[in-house]
């Protein structure tokens, strides 16, 4: 082990990196790039990761919101880092970390503290399967239950990444500890590096070490008081977790995080589950309305929808959909119930439907749960909002799956197997779900198809409710006809006296045929295709069947993308094709061609339209 130059006995922390063993693989850690992208910059990732784990750690007996405090301490007068700096600087230099803009004589700290939470539960003297070890002693794995919001997996690496010296400290008090003992520990995240002839592992610990080298958190009152005085941590004996980031990157001041807190966590704040104090700016259910309009652009109508859906869910009197909804929403409700729902929807009432869904894990065990859908028509001139919420986390990129301009909509999976399934599908930044996520496909059968059903449920329910009896779409069937296009004819003036017209029916053999099958279809050469018809140019379009209306007009890229990876297009014979969205342009140059499309949701019907195209 490598130890620090500190020799003040038990009343100090030490920094140690373990040495590598012969044959160990070198690790070049690139977490900064992972957590700081064009789509989700570092401030947004830090905000989402810290607050989602705070919501996850809410104490079961808490009556009221979880409180989070963000603060910034510049040029601390009492320097906690001073005795640790020489060894740390040596390792930072060996790992080629650029510290040219770090003023070691004037450290600054970003502090994130939560209250009303459990703290990091678990054993401190061994590595067990609970929160303390998940945070400090594991990377990429956790033992949290599926309904939890966060997992202390890869996401926690955003904390050292947020530091210009790649360091994070944590002080925790656990609710399960009757003595309310505070525990302090720290970690440096570098890469495999060498000092002289000795090679070190990427993770180093600021801790007190046992004789066997095992890093232990400190409960020394002297060390902890010095730490709190230097960093501005306010925790006394309240259960919870305080994270301290020394030398935070300049874009991570609390004032800069306020808009991101409002943008990403407005739902638990509006519903009274979360309050945040960002260096004196209180963001709560009572203060967020003005911030929502200023920061996120939410109108009063949109804010009112969120408050009303929260009140409606609190009443817990949903309309329950039948499990048959997975075969088609027209089977979700008895006809009388559907008529009542449509009438309520037409009046502008808030519709709350609880949707059952079953899953099969890879080990063969079954899991059954449900999720909530809430929809309401928007008044003329109002701009609707779409919410996709897992536990208390809004998943913003999923809103594209409900692109309605005439209705408000929310999908909420707050607990149980559905929340667990969606958590496994979530990306590290918690902004979208991925049907091909490794954790998802390893754990669940038919994962991509199940995710597709969940994603489309809100849109499909809204379509079912807004298409009431007696409302017809004159173009609903025009694109289902498998006919070749003819040149438009000029309309003639009607003749008041007309003779009977003899209809000539084309009995020629078709040039192509459509062969449906479960989860896909094929377009193949027909018996009427002759050499003189080549090259044959076709436009193939497909969409999931809907209860009413034109399925092609209701197609959304969230259903499937023929140019993506989930749906596979294969061909045989001399044929060229170009696939995008729900359309394939085909040029067949031989009479024995075939085009096959597979990978659709096997529980949904696919409507296929094929037309000949002009050159």
Question: How is the topology of this model organized?
Answer:
Elements: E1 14-19, H1 31-34, H2 42-56, E2 66-73, H3 85-94, E3 109-115, H4 131-137, H5 158-161, E4 167-173, E5 182-189, E6 193-195, E7 198-209, E8 215-216, H6 221-231, E9 240-246, H7 254-270, E10 274-278, E11 281-283, H8 288-296, H9 300-315, E12 319-320, H10 335-347, E13 351-360, E14 366-377, E15 386-390, E16 393-394, E17 407-413, H11 416-425, H12 438-443, H13 447-466, E18 512-517, E19 520-525, E20 536-544, E21 568-572, E22 575-580, E23 583-588, E24 594-598, E25 606-612
Parallel strand pairs: 2-10, 12-13, 15-17
Antiparallel strand pairs: 1-7, 2-3, 3-9, 4-5, 4-9, 5-7, 6-7, 7-8, 10-11, 13-14, 14-17, 15-16, 18-19, 19-24, 20-23, 20-25, 21-24, 22-23
Helix pairs in contact: 2-7, 7-8
Question: How would you characterize this protein structure?
Answer:
This protein has 615 residues and is α+β, with helices and mostly antiparallel strands. The chain has 13 helices and 25 strands. The protein has helices spanning 31-34, 42-56, 85-94, 131-137, 158-161, 221-231, 254-270, 288-296, 300-315, 335-347, 416-425, 438-443, 447-466; strands at residues 14-19, 66-73, 109-115, 167-173, 182-189, 193-195, 198-209, 215-216, 240-246, 274-278, 281-283, 319-320, 351-360, 366-377, 386-390, 393-394, 407-413, 512-517, 520-525, 536-544, 568-572, 575-580, 583-588, 594-598, 606-612. The strands form four sheets. Strands 1, 2, 3, 4, 5, 6, 7, 8, 9, 10 and 11 form an eleven-stranded mixed β-sheet that branches. It has a six-stranded mixed β-sheet with strand order 12-13-14-17-15-16, with helices on both faces. A hairpin with a 5-residue loop joins strand 7 and strand 8 (215-216). Helix 2 crosses helix 7 (254-270). The longest helix has 20 residues, at 447-466. It is globular. Mean pLDDT is 85; it is low at 1-9, 145-152, 469-492 and 495-499.
């Amino acid at each position: 082990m490598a130890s620090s130059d500190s020799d003040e006995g038990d009343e100090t922390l030490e920094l140690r990196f373990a040495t590598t063993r012969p044959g160990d693989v070198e690790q070049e850690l690139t977490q900064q790039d992972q957590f700081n992208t064009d789509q989700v910059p570092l401030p947004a990732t830090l905000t989402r990761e810290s607050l989602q784990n705070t919501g996850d750690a809410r104490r079961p007996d808490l009556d009221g919101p979880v409180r989070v405090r963000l603060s910034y301490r510049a040029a601390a007068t009492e320097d906690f880092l001073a005795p640790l700096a020489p060894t740390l600087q040596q390792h930072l230099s060996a790992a080629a970390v650029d510290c040219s803009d770090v003023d070691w004589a004037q450290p600054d700290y970003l502090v994130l503290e939560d209250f009303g939470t459990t703290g990091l539960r678990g054993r401190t003297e061994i590595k067990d399967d609970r929160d303390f070890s998940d945070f400090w002693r594991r990377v990429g794995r956790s033992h949290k239950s599926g309904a939890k919001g966060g997992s202390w997996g890869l996401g926690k690496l955003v904390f050292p990444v947020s530091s210009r010296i790649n360091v994070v400290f944590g002080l925790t008090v656990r609710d399960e500890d009757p003595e309310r003992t505070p525990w302090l520990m720290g970690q440096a995240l570098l890469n495999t590096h060498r000092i002289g002839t000795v090679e070190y592992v990427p993770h180093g610990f600021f801790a007190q070490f046992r004789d066997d080298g095992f890093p232990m958190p400190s409960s020394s009152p002297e060390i902890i008081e010095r730490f709190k005085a230097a960093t501005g941590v306010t925790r006394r004996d309240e259960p919870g977790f305080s994270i301290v980031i020394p030398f935070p990157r300049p874009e991570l001041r609390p004032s800069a995080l306020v808009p991101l807190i409002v943008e990403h966590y407005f739902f638990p704040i509006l519903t009274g589950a979360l309050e945040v104090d960002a260096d004196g700016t209180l963001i709560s259910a009572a203060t967020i309305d003005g911030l929502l309009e200023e920061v996120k652009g939410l109108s009063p109508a949109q804010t009112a929808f969120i408050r009303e859906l929260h009140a409606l869910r609190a009443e817990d009197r949903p309309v329950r959909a039948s499990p048959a909804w997975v075969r088609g929403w027209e089977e979700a409700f008895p006809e009388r119930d559907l008529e009542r729902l449509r009438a309520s929807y037409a009046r502008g009432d808030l519709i709350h439907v609880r949707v059952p869904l079953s899953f099969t894990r890879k080990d063969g065990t079954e899991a059954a749960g449900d999720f909530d859908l809430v929809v309401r028509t928007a008044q003329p001139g109002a701009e609707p909002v779409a919410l996709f919420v897992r536990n208390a986390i809004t998943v913003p990129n999923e809103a594209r799956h409900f692109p309605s301009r005439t209705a408000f909509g929310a999908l909420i999976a707050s607990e149980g197997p559905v929340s667990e399934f969606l958590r496994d599908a979530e990306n590290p930044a918690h902004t979208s779900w991925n049907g091909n996520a490794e954790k998802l496909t390893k754990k669940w059968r038919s994962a991509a198809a199940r995710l597709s059903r969940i994603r489309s449920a809100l849109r499909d329910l809204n379509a079912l409710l807004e298409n009431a009896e007696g409302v017809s779409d004159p173009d609903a069937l025009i694109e289902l006809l498998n006919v070749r296009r003819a040149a438009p004819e000029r309309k003639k003036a009607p003749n008041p006296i007309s003779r009977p017209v003899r209809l000539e029916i084309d009995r020629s053999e078709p040039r192509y045929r459509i062969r449906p099958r479960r989860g896909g279809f094929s377009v193949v050469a027909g018996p009427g295709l002759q050499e003189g018809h080549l090259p044959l140019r076709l436009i193939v379009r497909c969409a999931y069947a809907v209860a009413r209306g034109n399925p092609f007009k209701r197609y959304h890229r969230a259903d499937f993308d023929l140019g993506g990876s989930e749906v596979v297009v294969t061909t045989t014979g001399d044929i060229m094709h170009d696939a995008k969205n729900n359309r394939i342009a085909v040029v067949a140059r031989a009479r024995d061609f075939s085009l096959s499309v597979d990978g659709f949701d096997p529980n949904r019907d696919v409507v296929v339209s094929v037309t000949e195209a002009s050159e």
